[in-house]
Structures are given as structure tokens and as C-alpha cells.
Design goal:
about 325 residues, mainly beta, 2 helices, seven-stranded antiparallel β-sheet, single chain
């Protein structure tokens, strides 16, 4: 959620960033235990490679976000470009701004957000709801708070070069339609992908898993992850032990980049509940050039996106006279 004003001077004066994708092509990592009482649940367990605190920063109009991915310590994690844990109250919000070249996934943790775009699409997502928006060749929209307190996660997922200029699309999933499962003190909501025998109906152009886990005190989890995918954890509340039972606990607002492997194990050894999202995706292995809300493969394509947006063409035609309010 990155509100961009409709002024070409701001766009042209901003820096165009060529991002280097984080590679996880590392040797196989195995659990090293001091005792013989632990047998890994996977042939190649995923361990924690990097731990980053998502520090608060101001964004949009009066919003505060904890940026887990998309900051200097963790610029991106192919195919993921950004993860924000946002909090916003009226009259703040994310007024009219464009996107091109990727998808945004908004998952409401509390409150409501109302979305309006230049094609006439409008809707409100509330606690537990998901909006999966494919910006494709271009969208201009606003995202404004609907209640006194509004919190959620927004994930940016890159699109491959052959999908960057497709027509925009929405998949909206109300909370009651998100598949869930519960067993042995572990509950999961499957926003994308599969867990505990249940599948999400969401279509992911870039193959992705997005799982919201809650673990009771004393519970443990063993979740398979495709071996070729990059993956990470973001802790929403509580504290947990990730990867190996000998690891130090990780508390809320940290993102954990995981090593390659075939699955992740998690333990809640605390006296309180643990909630986190486990997100993984198939790397695109393509160049990433990002300029604010535009993500393409080359600097020339970014310059073209800025021009198209300014002159309301090639996907931005309906934005010429449109304002959300």
C-alpha cells in the first residue's frame, strides 16, 4: 500500500531501483541437535537464514506500516517484493495511486478497508477477508479505512515478464469462504496453496502459498513446502521456535527468511498463543526494476510505465478524469 500522488514531477524525480533478487541457492541445511531425542520431520528441514525486525514507518496519509520485506535489510525475496503489516484510522488511508507489473494481496486482521478503482470496481473487505488483485498492465485505485481501527497485511507478488501486461483482475474471498482446518492445537486458514489436507480456491499466476497459522501453547506444526520455492515467516503475535527445537524463540513483528528444504517445523513452547503467516513462492529468476508502484524487468519498461500513467494510455486510459472521491 504505497500512496503515490498524481504528479509527474514526483514520479520523475524518484529514483528507479534495480533490485538484486535474494538467492537461496545454498547447500542443504540439516538440523544439528545435541541429543538423540529429536528426529526431523523432513529430509531437508528448512531453518532460519535471516531474521529481520519489521520496524514501524509512516506510509500513505496517516498510516503506519511495519515493512517486513521491501526495506534495506530485506529488499525482496523472489517472487515477493513487499510485505506490510499496516495500521490506519480515518481520515488517513491510501488515496488514489497506480500499480503495474505485479499482484497485491490484502488480508484484513481487524476492521475494514474500502477499495475503489478507475474501472468502477468497488468493495469493502473486513476482518478475515482477502482481496487478491492482479494489477497487470495498470490500475489506479484507492484503499481507505472503514472503521476506527483497521489492521492487515499487504503482500506484493511479482509477475513474470509474460504476465506483466495482462488485464487487471480481482479475486475476493470473504472470511467464511477461506478454507480452514484444525488439529492437535494447530489451526490454519489457507489463503493460497494447501495445508492440513485443505486447498485454497485462489488462482496464483505466480505459484504461491499463503498460510495463516495459530498454535496453542505446547502445540507443534510440520508443514511441507515445495523444495524449489523461496519462503518466509512473519510473526503476528506471540513467540515461537522455528526450524529447529534448539533455535531461539522469535517474537512478534519479525520476518524469518527460511533456507531451502522440503518443510518447516514450528513449536510453541510459550504459555500464550502463537500466530504467524507462512508464505512461499516459486522464484521467477528474472531481473527486477522497481520505481515505486511500477515493477518491470528493464529501466526502459519503467520509463514507459511512467509515460503511460502520465498520459493516460496503454492501460491507464480510464484514469484521465477519474478520482475516487
Amino acid at each position: 500500500m504505497r500512496a503515490i500522488r498524481h504528479h509527474l514531477s514526483l514520479l520523475l524525480n524518484s529514483r528507479i531501483n534495480t533490485n538484486t533478487q535474494i538467492s537461496l541457492s545454498l547447500p542443504s541445511v540439516r538440523n544439528i541437535m545435541s541429543g538423540s531425542d529429536y528426529s526431523p520431520a523432513f529430509n531437508s528441514p528448512r531453518l532460519v537464514l535471516k531474521k529481520v525486525l519489521a520496524k514501524s514507518q509512516h506510509e500513505g496519509d496517516g498510516a503506519v506500516v511495519r515493512r517486513a520485506i521491501g526495506r534495506s535489510e530485506l529488499r525482496n525475496l523472489d517472487p515477493f517484493l513487499m510485505l506490510d503489516h499496516f495500521s490506519v484510522s480515518p481520515p488517513g488511508g491510501f488515496p488514489d495511486h497506480p500499480h503495474r507489473g505485479f499482484e497485491t494481496v490484502t488480508y484484513m486482521l481487524e476492521g475494514a478497508m474500502t477499495h475503489r478503482d478507475f474501472a468502477g470496481h468497488e468493495g469493502t473487505i473486513r476482518t478475515g477477508d482477502v482481496q487478491w488483485m492482479t494489477a497487470g498492465r495498470g490500475i489506479i485505485h484507492s484503499e481507505m479505512p472503514g472503521e476506527a481501527t483497521n489492521k492487515g497485511l499487504q503482500l506484493w507478488i511479482n509477475l513474470s515478464s509474460n504476465n506483466k501486461m495482462i488485464e487487471p483482475n480481482y479475486q475476493e474471498l470473504p472470511s467464511e469462504n477461506i478454507p480452514s482446518a484444525e488439529q492437535d492445537g494447530v489451526e490454519v486458514r489457507v489463503i493460497a496453496g494447501e495445508a492440513m489436507g485443505v486447498h485454497s480456491p485462489v488462482y496464483t499466476r505466480t505459484p504461491t502459498m499463503f498460510l495463516d497459522f495459530s498454535l496453542d501453547p505446547g502445540a507443534q506444526l510440520h508443514q511441507s513446502i515445495p523444495e524449489s520455492w523461496n519462503s518466509f515467516v512473519y510473526v503476528i503475535e506471540g513467540e515461537g521456535v522455528f526450524g529447529s527445537p534448539s533455535s531461539s524463540p522469535t517474537v512478534a513483528y519479525h520476518v524469518l527468511v527460511l533456507s531451502q528444504g522440503d518443510g518447516l517445523s514450528v513449536w510453541n513452547n510459550s504459555s500464550k498463543g502463537l500466530r504467524f503467516v507462512l508464505i512461499g513462492g516459486q522464484p521467477l529468476n528474472e531481473p527486477v526494476v522497481q520505481h515505486g508502484p511500477f515493477v518491470m524487468n528493464t529501466k526502459h519498461e519503467i520509463e514507459k510505465a511512467i509515460e503511460d500513467y502520465h498520459y493516460s494510455k496503454n492501460g491507464f486510459e480510464m484514469g484521465k478524469y477519474w478520482k475516487s472521491q
